[in-house]
TrEMBL record:
Keywords: Hydrolase. CDD domains: HDAC_classIV (cd09993). This is Histone deacetylase. The keyword ATP-binding does not apply. Coiled coil: none annotated. One of its GO terms (biological process) is epigenetic regulation of gene expression. It comes from Flavilitoribacter nigricans (strain ATCC 23147 / DSM 23189 / NBRC 102662 / NCIMB 1420 / SS-2) (Lewinella nigricans). One of its GO terms (molecular function) is histone deacetylase activity. Residues 18-283 form the Histone deacetylase domain. Pfam families: Hist_deacetyl (PF00850). It comes from the Bacteria. Belongs to the histone deacetylase family.
């Protein structure tokens, strides 16, 4: 059974001029339903995170600022969105969706969140369109509840998972792996447990070669009982923020290899969607939909 986290609140629209990054959260599930990859029965609607869950990862001071909408102009600029209570509420649903996906992944092998992958959020601040760090929140919560004991974060978004790396820098039970554009955002990188910076214009063949040389070895060494996979499609050559040069097929093969490797190792994997900023919205939707198509092929 393919379980996919999605709620109408994911479609919350920002003011004109900020809307483009958000449209895909509405269009991806519509595409998957239209083509028959999934049915309505595959979707579940996550509830919002509780305050206790948030405070396992984010600082009380930051949480209070979000609740009271008292972020400074500089803090709002770093996030990149005009802050509204609806955006905080949306983030709480998304992060709970990632927790729920991890639980479904343990049951079915894989589960996917239509949103998430907010890896630029630190414990005490947001950055880069990220308010809460959904994977960090889910990992910390599952460690506390005992539902996971060793976690591997597979971050293949084109941008380094700097917030995730920072949050888990002193947590041996979470291994952070980020394969990203060397010269891309963020300018100042944090230190993941394993960082693989890639030069501009990296194409399918070298990208996939590095991934295939790295992921099986990591699983062998880390021995995780749960993986989080950040499947950003901003690695595409067409992406206006990406700087790498993967084809649509190469991005699909990336997803296929991650899923096949996790399944081969009996490693449950919870997927968060991550970034995608190609000028043509159809290219973004197709690339993200490929992640769900491949998951359906491999696990069903």
């Amino acid at each position: 059974m393919l379980k996919i986290a999605f709620s109408p609140i994911y479609k919350y629209q920002l003011p004109e001029g900020h809307r483009f990054p958000m449209v895909k959260y509405e269009l991806v599930p519509e595409q998957l339903l239209y083509e028959g990859t999934v049915t309505q029965s595959n979707f579940f609607h996550p509830e919002p995170l509780t305050e206790d869950q948030i405070l396992l990862t984010h600082s009380p001071a930051y949480w209070n600022k979000l609740q009271e909408q008292k972020l400074s102009v500089k803090e709002v600029r770093a996030i990149g969105f005009p802050m509204r209570p609806e955006l905080v509420w949306r983030g709480r649903h998304i992060a709970q969706g990632t927790i729920d996906c991890a639980r479904y992944a343990r049951q079915y092998g894989v589960s996917l969140n239509i949103a998430g992958g907010t890896h630029h959020a630190f414990a005490d601040r947001g950055e880069g369109f990220c308010v809460f760090n959904d994977i960090a929140i889910a990992a910390n919560y599952l460690l506390v509840t005992g539902e996971a004991t060793k976690i591997l974060v597979i971050d293949l978004d084109v941008h380094q998972g700097n917030g995730t790396a920072s949050i888990f820098q002193h947590e041996d039970r979470v291994f952070t792996f980020s394969m990203h554009g060397e010269k891309n955002y963020p300018l100042r990188k944090e230190r993941s447990d394993l960082d693989i910076p890639l030069p501009d214009k990296t194409t399918d063949k070298p990208y996939l070669k590095i991934l295939k040389e790295t992921l099986p070895r990591l699983i062998d060494e880390v021995q995780p009982d749960l993986a989080f996979y950040l499947s950003g499609v901003d690695v595409l050559e067409s992406d206006r923020l990406g700087r790498l040069s993967l084809s649509l097929q190469g991005c699909k093969e990336r997803d296929r290899y991650v899923f096949q490797t996790c399944k081969k190792n009996n490693l449950p994997v919870a997927v968060s969607m991550g970034g995608g900023y190609s000028p043509r919205i159809a290219a973004i939707i197709d690339a993200h939909a490929n992640t769900y198509r491949v998951a359906s092929e491999i696990y069903l």
